[in-house]
Write a structure and sequence with these properties.
Number of helices of chain A: 22
Shape of chain A: elongated
Largest interface: A-B, 55 and 55 residues
Structural class of chain A: alpha/beta
Low-confidence stretches of chain A: none
Helix content of chain A: 40-55%
Distance between the termini of chain A: 46 Å
Strand order of the largest sheet of chain A: 2-3-1-4-5
Radius of gyration of chain A: 27 Å
CATH architecture of the largest domain in chain A: 3-Layer(aba) Sandwich
CATH topology of the largest domain in chain A: Rossmann fold
Oligomer: homodimer
Chain lengths: ~500, ~500
């Protein structure tokens, strides 16, 4: 992939002087349109060889365009808060919102490439990381992010010359350190691994552009023009077009997942109280287990029919653990900042660090439940969400999280009884809204969506626990017991 | 302050059973109104003696009300990212937005009280911290936050009994640790210091309520009722009333601050280039000085007349430093999440950690410039902003930041020339808007606002640097030189 970039492209002073002002103006205009439309963000990844003009290009882009709408982020060592979360967390927190240009200097490619070069990972490890990246970038692209990936290249000889030049000049001498020369020794390995990485991740929706870094004028014009063309062509596209994807045929044979739940089980109040004490005590002990929480975090999420008792179950958990360790995240409509990001962004920002517990009252599954049923997103969007969510949970799990997912199910009759009761009990009245009654009318659609969700997202690492919640006592005990057992298994 | 709380208040089961449902209902209604109105946040601080029911009360409040609109935060040890920023940063990042109830379990009182008890700070240190807290809470209250402070109290005898009780019961035994008994030995010192702290910080806008923690029913009803009454009375108040504060008489004798600037100085392009190289080089060396950046961060802020060359000056700084270390924050209109918080919140969230540089293109001074001149906030609001800003900068400085503030000034004639030029140069056209022309008509009002700002916020720790920017070259050199010298002085 680097052959063309070693041809020694050059742009003369004259050509540059003629083209630069026009390019600059066009970039500014495109950037202005981008900021006005606020329809999508632009994300530019900058990678490649040291001395090939990465930093210079980043500075130039900031100079050419309006810096108020560019956010440059450089990724060095992870902070504590970053290191204690899944690997991708630090990148998610720095994604540019719609209307802005984000430049990432170093990215999710850095760690996989470097660790392969240093022999810290093997071929299979690298392959796994790259596959993950391809899926992640596809998701970004499906979510509307305009992703541009630039790789700045120099041949071995060019890099050596460049470093010598920098060293000779007293004003730039500081830019070349011993560490850079150490790294230079690994040029061949670095070249081989990065070529492989680029090839594997150069897909239609997010191709790499390898830029010959030897001539400043050439590389500046190349990056600028490509950025311009990409922005312009994207801005001209009419509003987001739903790809024509048919809804999958309803596999009514999976409805048994919910319908076969035994809703008749009950326990007595006395038994409930003994069991509650037992499992709350167990959960409490586990939540104070330092050995466990040094390596792990706990993510609990609750979905369920309206009035199925999510809140009650959550309070039985929080009642057993120290308020310093948990956080309940009630999921309501996204804020302005959240709407300007891919839909998983608002959940990523709540991912707990090690030693902490986050309880989601409703969750990212809204995408394949309410958003599917109510048509808030297109068919293609909720269909791809299953695998995106599986990827998300896999990343959390790999980052040390135990993910427990609960679906609380009640029958339509029981729901009606609870709705009516809520309306009668004045201090519960806030719990019942017109929307609940509207949702109830779509019982069958929701049932199908739930069964599809369980079918497609109940994984070995993050299985769904279906809870027959007709009897609240039973449901709460099952929830507490499940959490305690998952934690014990991880110890 | 604890006498009344040791009287042994009790509420019988019967009274509680009668009052609790009503209180619950009223609290829910008030909370619902709060969430609907989104006019102000409620912030509840929970402090006091261990075993006095702090945790139980927090859980109860979450049970009584709708947990979707409550955010509970407990503050243990600071994380890396918190520890590397000013002390108050971690509290700012957890402030509840308008319409929500935030409960802080542990707060800005914890550290000052504990370190005094342990003898790590002296009387004067405690006094300083408490005065700072009073100012901070006054600001919160002025910004509309409904602040409630509860202190849960037990007499020494009661605490001992309580801990013994907890220890006897096998289900609660875990709640009492060796550490708790160690702390119990310091009961008297803790009581003395906290009584002092409470007295000093019990001011009209944010009084403490000391709650007798010995009887669960009593303390629950007490907290619930007080919360209810405070929310109700605040909700009934008609929209934010501007306190009648007169604008201060215009002290036209401070206009000399700007008018006396020598705008005629110039340097040649050749000299500029030599100087630029020199100061950029110096800045670069300093920005890579590990000794410095282990203890410090750098905050640069730019204000100035429109077209005074802020962007150009900023680019000369960024051109000299590694993109991995800085971040430019262009200050535009606040987002929805930012509007739901005190005005300084959006700047606190950008405060750099040690080793990092943040450059603000416009800043918190908007409060006393554009917001004052355009009447976006009341007279009382911008008048109090001077001292709030001084407090803010003092906290940053104490947290290790070097704060450099630049005002770039040009003459009205020069501005007209630049505006006209910008309109002619097509790629600079985006830089000039109708608003710029409107602002220009208010030249005199802005001039007064700027002079007042400099008068009131140029402090020893965070002085203003006035830059005669008629000559861009000269202005850029002065900026670079100032930063380098401030950094050198701190080394």
């Amino acid at each position: 992939m680097f052959e063309s970039a070693e041809l020694g492209h050059k742009v003369t002073k004259q050509v540059y002087a003629r083209q630069e002002p026009k390019l600059r103006e066009a970039l500014l205009n495109a950037q202005f349109d981008l900021a006005q439309a606020k329809k999508f963000p632009v994300l530019i990844l900058i990678g490649g060889v040291d001395g090939a003009g990465k930093g210079e290009t980043v500075n130039l882009l900031s100079e050419w365009m309006d810096p108020r709408h560019i956010q440059t982020r450089a990724f060095g060592d992870a902070t504590d808060e970053e290191g204690q979360r899944p690997r991708m967390w630090r990148f998610w927190r720095e994604l540019p919102p719609k209307g802005k240009i984000g430049i990432m200097f170093g990215s999710w490619y850095t760690a996989p490439i470097i660790s392969r070069v240093l022999g810290q990972s093997d071929e299979a490890g690298l392959k796994g990381s790259l596959e993950e990246i391809v899926r992640f970038e596809k998701m970004l692209s499906d979510e509307g992010v305009l992703l541009l990936k630039f790789w700045f290249h120099l041949s071995k000889k060019q890099q050596k010359t460049r470093m010598r030049e920098l060293e000779k000049d007293p004003h730039t001498r500081w830019r070349v350190t011993k560490f850079d020369w150490e790294r230079f020794k690994m040029y061949d390995a670095f070249r081989k691994v990065s070529e492989h990485a680029l090839r594997e991740t150069s897909v239609a929706t997010a191709p790499w552009t390898v830029v010959d870094g030897s001539d400043a004028r050439y590389r500046s014009l190349t990056v600028g023009k490509l950025l311009l063309e990409s922005m312009k062509s994207r801005l001209q596209k009419s509003a987001y077009k739903e790809r024509r994807v048919q809804a999958p045929p309803l596999l009514t044979d999976n409805l048994g997942l919910l319908r076969d739940l035994d809703m008749s089980q009950k326990i007595t109040k006395e038994k409930y109280e003994t069991q509650l004490e037992k499992w709350q005590g167990r959960l409490n002990l586990l939540s104070r287990e330092k050995k466990y929480f040094k390596k792990h975090s706990l993510i609990l999420l609750f979905e369920g029919s309206d009035a199925a008792g999510k809140g009650g179950a959550i309070r039985r958990i929080t009642g057993a653990i120290d308020a310093r360790h948990y956080q309940v995240v009630p999921v309501a409509a996204p804020t302005e900042e959240e709407r300007a990001q891919p839909y998983l962004w608002r959940f990523w920002r709540q991912v707990p660090r090690r030693g902490r517990i986050t309880i989601f009252d409703r969750s990212w599954y809204g995408r394949v439940l309410v958003e599917r049923v109510e048509g808030f997103c297109g068919v293609a969007d909720w269909m791809r969400a299953y695998s995106e969510i599986n990827d998300f949970e896999e990343q959390m799990t790999r980052g040390g999280a135990i993910v427990c997912k609960f679906w609380l199910q009640i029958s339509a009759e029981e729901q009606l009884k609870r709705f009516t009761l809520r309306q009668k009990t004045s201090f519960k009245r806030f719990k019942i809204t017109d929307e609940d009654w509207r949702n109830r009318k779509k019982w069958n659609e929701y049932e199908q969506a739930v069964c599809d969700m369980i079918d497609r997202t109940s994984t070995e690492i993050a299985p769904w626990t279906l809870v027959a919640a007709e009897d609240k006592y039973l449901a709460r005990i099952k929830v507490l017991k499940t959490i305690a057992e998952r934690m014990e298994a991880a110890l």
